[in-house]
Amino acid sequence: xxxxxxxxxxxxxxxxxxxxxxxxxxxxxxxxxxxxxxxxxxxxxxxxxxxxxxxxxxxxxxxxxxxxxxxxxxxxxxxxxxxxxxxxxxxxxxxxxxxxxxxxxxxxxxxxxxxxxxx
Length: 119
Hints:
six-stranded antiparallel sheet
């Protein structure tokens, strides 16, 4: 069995809060994301979003992005599903641009999501 990828190691599912995942960044800070349910409207507020692929009971981070409106997060969703097997979307509300960009950079540095590498 191969060792887990960086994208799997940094992704910790919070067992007692099944709607959430925690992602550990390169700084060792932990960032909590809320699962977006298919069919629910996305908030039109700014934030950070991640696409996750689940396989063999494990979750792997496929992509991490930030946007001024989380509604736009789904523009990349078809590609994440088709090319990278993503099957879940998680959101983190983060209104200020500076903190959003810092969260994104911290997570990408720690996890090297495959879709980010091919962006």
